[in-house]
Amino acid sequence: MTSTSIAIPDQFQIKELVNQNTYLVGGALIPWRGKTSEVYSTISSTKDYKPTLLGTIPTLGKKEAINALDAAVSAYNKGQGLWPTMKVVDRIACMEKFVEQMKTKREEVVKLLMWEIGKNLPDSEKEFDRTVEYIYDTIEDYKQMDRDSAKFEKNSGVNAHIRRGPLGVVLCLGPYNYPLNETFALLIPALIMGNTVIFKPAKHGVLLISPLLEAFQNSFPKGAVNIIYGRGRAVAAPIMQTGKIDVLALIGNSKSANALQNQHPKSNRLRLVLGLEAKNPAIVLPDADLDLAIDECIAGATSFNGQRCTALKILYVHENIVEEFNKRFSEKVDALKFGNPWEDGAKLTPLPEPDKPLYIQKLIDDATENGAKVINTKGGETTENYIFPAVLYPVTKDMRVFQEEQFGPVIPIVPFSDIEEPLDDMAESNYGQQVSLFGKDVKTLAPLIDTLVNLVCRVNLNSSCQRGPDVYPFTGRKDSAVATLSVHDALRSFSIRTFVASKDNDYNNAILKDLMDSRASNFVSTDYIL
Ligand code: G3H
Fold first, then answer.
1. At what angle do helices 121-148 and 181-192 cross, to 10 degrees?
2. Do residues 73 and 244 lie in contact, with contact meaning Cβ atoms separated by under 8 Å?
3. Which of 193, 220, 330, 523 could potentially form a cystine with 495 if both were Cys, beta carbons 3.0 to 4.6 Å apart?
4. Contact 91, 244 (CB under 8 A)
């Protein structure tokens, strides 16, 4: 493998640095003249390898973080704020204003996605488009939710008007692998339900938020959304320590989630919406269609270099077919093209974390020292910003690559003779997100499906694991998630059922009628949103 060519198409060249010198708090883009941090891409712009400087972000500290928290708390204003009490139809109008402006920033955001996290062009475009679609779907779902609750019900002599209300102040942190999509999959439902939000972009994939700052500023009431920059330790921890956060919404690592949770002094107040690690296995049964299984395992294990929580991170292949599987699988891995994100057909692209190649190399070394072999020719070939996926076989439980979520380009294969072996491993695992099951005979598949659905939250039949389509529930057992995300479920996760009840008598009913006729309350309303 050679380093990627340096011919960068004109439209993707970095001609100007993105120097983010403001942050959004209380509706104002506050100028920052203090310390800044440089943002680099691991992609080189010169012939001799050198990381490319993309721009700078403010290095905010505790003072600015607490100011952002105060802005969110005061926008919530003990439930009296403009945003949490606003009519649903008006909150939707703000979100529509935002998404219309967001769409005009596609080119800039896609370009930064490629440079900041090395995601290839088609996938970067998909991330942007999928996010826009997610916002529209969220709006439609919220309308339906509102229509369904635009009514009274009566039980045992009590009238009730039940809706979903916001939880309060949300601290929102997203991951580097989907810095736009996954972050917005938290931020957008949190906001639209009437919560106020403090959002800190991921370490990698931070500048791509810059083109959207003005849209955030001019679409929502002041303080409804606050965007800050800096290290989690310096800004997120002090916010949590105040005990004023009602929801921690985080997609990323369980260590960071636990550390932040533990800072909060009132654990019952704190709701959690978390998407964490996974070690999704593929199980390839002896009667599987090998061509199909291999293609799906390649996509599952290597797309975005395995840096997806849903990636296939361990392959269990039945011993009767493992030799053939390994041969054909390794050839196909070696045929994958490595290149810069804008290069045609580049499936493998530079890794955004400078220390990732070394970490992956250590996993390979540990596995080979313990009896595995790298069975593909290019496996482990290294450049300054990449390490070619090594297919490791046979992998055993004592190896680090079996135990750790590699989140990068290395593919462990474990042979099995008895199906109880992968099932036992899954039951013992700390993770429980998804599985891919390859096979045909329903007599074998049926009992397996019945067991696997109790170990994970999605069984992908003859298909690789994935989050989408985003209308389906995305969650996990054990250390893999807390709460469920999907277009609909996210609206539920960021809200709580709350209602107005009154005894059914003439006195109360006259007041209820007056409330509805006068349209004086934004909550008590039977208006039907078209
Ligand atoms: O990092 C985890 C993502 O939720 C995976 O989403 O399956 O659409 O790549 P995806």
1. 20
2. yes
3. 193
4. no
CB-ligand 1 contact for 310 (6 Å cutoff): yes
Give CA–CA dist 438/442, Å, rounded. 11
* Cβ atoms 45, 8 nearer than 8 A: yes
Helix (H) / strand (E) containing 391: strand 390-393
Q: How far is the CA of 466 from the centre of ligand 1 (A)?
A: 6
Contacts of 70 (CB under 8 A, 6+ apart): none
Residue nearest to atom 6 of ligand 1 (CA): 467
User: Which of these, 393, 422, 468, 392, lies nearest to 178 by C-alpha position?
Assistant: 468
Please state the three-class secondary structure of 200-218 as a single string.
Answer: ECCCCCCHHHHHHHHHHHH
What is the widest separation between alpha-carbon atoms in the chain? Answer: 83
| Residue with token string 């959690």 | 272
In ligand 1, which atom is closest to the CA atom of 177? Answer: 1
Instruction: Go through the chain and tell me how many residues it has.
Output: 530
184, 211 Cβ separation under 8 angstroms:
no
Angle at 139 between CA 134 and CA 142, to 5 degrees: 120
Cα–Cα dist 503/351, whole Å: 62
Q: Looking at ligand 1, which atom is closest to the CA of residue 468?
A: 8
Chain CA centroid to CA 501, Å:
38
Q: One digit per residue, pLDDT tens: the chain, 530 residues?
A: 555 556 899 999 999 999 999 999 999 999 999 999 999 999 999 989 999 999 999 999 999 999 999 999 999 999 999 999 999 999 999 999 999 999 999 999 999 999 999 999 999 999 999 999 999 999 999 999 999 999 999 999 999 999 999 999 999 999 999 999 999 999 999 999 999 999 999 999 999 999 999 999 999 999 999 999 999 999 999 999 999 999 999 999 999 999 999 999 999 999 999 999 999 999 999 999 999 999 999 999 999 999 999 999 999 999 999 999 999 999 999 999 999 999 999 999 999 999 999 999 999 999 999 999 999 999 999 999 999 999 999 999 999 999 999 999 999 999 999 999 999 999 999 999 999 999 999 999 999 999 999 999 999 999 999 999 999 999 999 999 999 999 999 999 999 999 999 999 999 999 999 999 999 999 999 988 98
428 C-beta neighbours (distance < 10 Å), count: 8
458 Cβ below 6 A of ligand 1: no
Q: Which of helix, strand or coil describes residue 425?
A: helix
Reference 213, options 223, 204, 222, 226; nearest CA is 226
pTM value is 0.97
Residue 395: phi and psi, rounded to 5, are -95, 140
Q: What is the DSSP string of 170-201?
A: EEEE--SSSTTHHHHHHHHHHHHTT-EEEEE-
Enumerate residues 6+ apart whose C-beta is below 8 A from 380: 361, 364, 374, 387, 388, 390
